[in-house]
Design goal:
The protein is an alpha/beta fold. The protein has 16 helices and 14 strands. It has a four-stranded parallel sheet, with helices on both faces. A three-stranded mixed sheet has the order 9-13-14. A three-stranded antiparallel sheet has the order 10-11-12.
């Protein structure tokens, strides 16, 4: 009597899919075996796709067949046994060699005849065709999603899948926390382990309510989908979802991660107002501080070579700094007049702003044209897939940067004007800081006013910074605009003749003539 091995299989271990498939197959096959009086000596259960060879339980079953422990296989359908040519060929070969004498299926007829083996080959071929055709249909659908900028998978943490429009939307519980994750790490003050503790205490958990692992946090920080693009099979695609962060912030995070930034534990030391502000003018060492008999003294640390510089009391240093700051102060009359001139400047720059915005838009359009031409070259087999993906990534990143420049320009079109007004207000506050400000406030303002601060022979030496140099070089008679060209600002020493007052170029703007 032929002994049978019962084989049941489903394609996945996912509990949400085919959850009753194994139970249903087993019940139907046992009922069929009882009806046909088949002797089942062992049951094999497997949750793995048959698209590719290498199923361990299936191979174990064939090993028992080859050893002669059983001579027949009972399964629901031939596609349960094989959906690829290798496993299907093994079954047919074992039938040809007589190792398999019987194959029983409730939904398929088979007998060991040329016609029966031919029909079995057709069944295996149909199973393989079904898998291959399904794969092509899925790939075609994915390619169409990529063309529309839709993420073709489960939403990354911080987003949710919007099934109606097939896009990503904000996760109300995690979107803000993931953005803070990037902002905190970009500071360079936290390791990934510290970041895990901070973000877990803030309530950021996985969809199953577990803390994010360090590996998941690292993968999240390296995922470009959060600044508006996503990588699929090595190729960048621009998404239609709303970016969580800017590309600039994403690049900062990558730089911090590349440098493997680790926080440094700072030692708790007594705070001195002017420590770290100056260097010795004789040997170049840092000026340190110490307390002696209730007074604070500043001196050269003398760490390199012998130095003849003497101690200096904090009170004397404070007096010198106050005099320096008073020299760089701007009275309220001048401050108000200069702000009035800046407001006039604002009215005349509208056309220049429009030209700048149009230039960025044209650069974005150039990137789109390059992407179209690159796609045509790839479809015409003029370049390889690897070369296409590499060049596309560069052009797409350039397009994203230009889009962010345009967005920043539109949101902050008057930021240079506000900076100029802010400087004038600071210069107007210097006199108050010099007279009544704290030592810490004087420290901060002196660093703003000058660079390369040096202490030599108990005297402060430095180089004034940028616009502060103009204020410091003003003669005493121009303390009032009324004494200046009849009260207007048209004279040769007009502040606004100096280019330092004009807008300076940065990463998002061009200088005005």
């Amino acid at each position: 009597m032929v002994k049978y091995l019962l084989y049941i299989r489903k394609s996945t271990d996912d509990e949400d899919r085919q959850i009753l498939s194994l139970e249903a197959q087993k019940a139907e096959l046992e009922e069929f075996a009882l009806k046909e009086s088949l002797e089942i000596i062992r049951t094999f259960e497997e949750s793995q796709t048959a698209k590719e060879p290498g199923r361990p339980i299936f191979n174990k079953m064939l090993e028992e067949i080859e050893k002669g422990e059983a001579q027949g296989i009972l399964a629901w359908h031939p596609d349960r046994l094989a959906r690829n040519s290798i496993d299907g060929g093994k079954i047919i070969y074992l039938v040809d060699t007589g190792k398999i004498k019987k194959l029983k299926f409730p939904s398929f007829w088979f007998e060991d005849t040329p016609q029966g083996k031919f029909m079995l080959q057709i069944a295996f071929g149909q199973s393989k065709y079904y898998v291959d055709n399904l794969s092509e249909n899925v790939k075609r659908g994915i390619r169409q999603k990529l063309r529309r900028g839709e993420w073709p998978g489960l939403a990354p943490i911080g987003y949710l899948n919007e099934l109606r429009y097939h896009t990503l939307i904000k996760d109300p519980k995690r979107f803000r926390l993931i953005r803070e994750l990037f902002e905190i790490y970009a500071s360079g003050q936290h390791s990934l382990k510290d970041l895990q503790k901070l973000i877990t205490s803030a309530g950021l958990l996985t969809r199953r309510g577990r803390p994010l692992s360090i590996a998941v946090i690292q993968h999240t920080l390296q995922n470009p989908i959060y600044y508006g693009v996503f990588k699929y099979f090595g190729e960048l695609h621009q998404g239609t979802h709303k970016p969580m962060i800017s590309k600039k912030l994403f690049d900062q995070v990558q730089e911090v991660m590349a440098n493997k930034s680790r926080p440094r534990k700072q030692k708790i030391v007594k705070q001195y107002a002017f420590r770290g502000l100056f260097k010795c003018g004789e040997c170049g060492c840092a000026i340190t501080s110490e307390t002696q008999k209730g007074h604070i003294y500043y001196r050269c640390s003398k760490k390199r070579t012998p130095c003849s510089q003497k101690y200096m009391r904090e009170e004397n240093l404070d007096t010198q700094i106050s005099k320096i700051l008073q020299k760089f102060s701007l009275n309220s009359t001048w401050a108000n007049k200069m702000i009035e001139e800046l407001d006039k400047e604002k009215e005349g720059k509208a056309q220049a702003e429009f030209s700048f915005a149009q230039d960025i838009k044209s650069q974005i359009k150039i990137c789109d044209n390059k992407l179209d031409k690159l796609l045509e070259a790839y479809l015409s087999d003029l370049i390889s897939q690897e070369e296409y993906a590499l060049k596309k990534g560069k052009i797409l990143n350039q397009k994203i940067e230009n889009q962010e420049k345009l967005k920043s320009f539109e949101q902050k079109d008057n930021h240079w004007l506000e900076r100029a007004k802010n400087f004038i207000s600071q210069a107007n506050q210097v006199q108050t800081i010099a007279g009544k400000g704290t030592l810490q406030e004087k420290h901060l303002f002196l660093k703003k006013v000058g660079s390369n601060l040096v202490l030599k022979n108990s005297k402060i030496k430095f180089f004034p910074r940028q616009a502060w140099k103009i204020i410091g070089n003003l003669p005493d008679f121009v303390d009032d605009p009324a004494k200046f060209e009849g009260g207007n600002l048209a004279g040769e020493t007009n502040f606004f003749k100096f280019s330092i007052w004009r807008e300076r170029p940065d990463s998002n703007r061009q200088p005005f003539p």
